[in-house]
Design a protein that fits this description.
The protein is an alpha/beta fold. The protein has 18 helices and 13 strands. Helix 10 crosses helix 16. The radius of gyration is 21 Å and the shape is globular.
């Protein structure tokens, strides 16, 4: 069968690539065409656009690139209709993907599956109307979404487990490099534990968060070493503008190896918070935005959930500290990090909370379960 996939950022590329591998196991004749990234390309098929040409964040960047965004949408719609896939599989990225779903529902009979459902339980809950109307099957990766979609909105979904669990489990089963080898390969200091900095995958996130993360973490540079996880598609020169004289090394394309050897981490909110937890690295969640007090007020009154990090959302309690908007200050980050780098009660409590999250998420196998259900549903539709 022919599968058209759309992923709009780095995490979507990772999870879509694993789904594609699982689909090939279920359907050896699987033919892929997609908007995505390098990991999806490595699996096979035809890439129409790289996600780097799609990922714009924030009102002003979106407005400035609106002609490009609209052009990419038109291209995507035309390309899908021309190729006539058996199914279109959307991966997160709701601003773009829900528009594609609406178009396909109105103009074609191509089924639409959504893998990694839009987080409308936190923001823009009204989008449930679009999902009910335009999405044939929704595959959830977060267990608390079952109650939201099925009990609150009476829309049946499939909880398949979490692909981050799969990705980390696969990495840990195949990664053979020792910490000493990792340190030697990157010319790091053998005697100093690592503080990992995960400042996001988008330029705006890096600009907003990295300077304060570096200033806070540099306090501990006499006893620890700072290592920054370079994001795909971000060149070293961009990071250099914010690093200045701070004592930090950058490693590109090695976030999982970095986390596997880290003592603690500063992490911007998103999938990375959950991945950091799965590696059992104590973390401080950092997410600065301009006009922090205003944003904090709006968050309290507009967001439907009490947390922004996936770790806390899964556990339904404050396992990790969230320093968001006006709370994201050098002083606050420094204080929270100090509680995690030693053998402290705070560190032990966070690791215990991580274990709780893992139990709630369930075992690995999300990609395989999703692929099996997808192929089964498609075959049933052809009978």
């Amino acid at each position: 069968m022919k599968y058209y996939l759309i992923a709009g950022e780095a995490s979507g590329d990772l999870h879509a690539s694993n789904l594609m591998k699982a689909l090939k196991s279920e359907d050896p004749e699987a033919d892929f065409r997609f908007f995505g990234g390098d990991l999806m390309s490595a699996v096979g098929g035809t890439r129409v656009k790289h996600y780097r040409e799609l990922a714009y964040m924030g009102f002003i960047p979106v407005l400035m690139h609106l002609p490009t965004i609209l052009s990419n949408m038109r291209l995507c719609k035309h390309d899908i209709v021309s190729w006539q896939p058996d199914v279109v599989i959307l991966i997160d990225y709701p601003g773009f993907n829900l528009d594609i779903a609406q178009y396909l529902r109105a103009n074609t009979r191509i089924p639409v599956y959504y893998y990694i459902s839009p987080k409308i339980w936190a923001w823009k809950e009204y989008r449930i109307k679009n999902i009910k109307r335009d999405v044939d099957e929704l595959f959830s990766i977060l267990p608390f979404e079952i109650a939201f979609f099925e009990k609150k909105h009476h829309y049946p979904i499939h909880y398949v487990g979490n692909p981050c669990v799969d990705a980390v489990a696969h990495f840990q089963a195949t990664y053979a490099e020792t910490k000493d080898e990792f340190i030697a390969r990157h010319a790091l200091q053998p005697s100093k534990p690592i503080i990992a900095l995960l400042a996001g995958s988008r330029r705006q996130e890096i600009k907003d968060n990295l300077p304060q993360m570096l200033e806070a973490a540099s306090t501990f540079a006499h006893t620890h070493q700072l290592v920054l996880a370079g994001a795909p598609g971000i060149d070293p020169e961009y990071y250099a503008k914010y690093i200045g004289s701070h004592p930090v090394k950058i490693v590109f394309g090695e976030t999982y190896p970095l986390l596997s050897h880290s003592r603690a981490a500063l992490v911007t909110s998103g999938t990375a918070t959950l991945e950091t937890a799965l590696f059992r690295v104590p973390q401080v969640v950092c997410y600065y935005v301009a006009m922090g007090k205003v944003i904090s007020f709006l968050r309290r009154h507009l967001l439907k959930v009490p947390y922004i990090s996936l770790v806390n959302l899964v556990a339904n309690r404050g396992v990790v500290k969230e320093l968001v908007a006006h709370l994201m200050t050098v002083r606050n980050v420094r204080a929270e990090l100090a509680d995690l780098i030693g053998d402290t009660p705070e560190r032990a409590a966070m690791l215990s909370g991580y274990d709780e999250c893992l139990r709630i998420l369930g075992p690995a196998g999300a990609s395989e379960k999703a692929a099996h259900l997808m192929v089964k549903k498609l075959k049933e539709g052809k009978v």
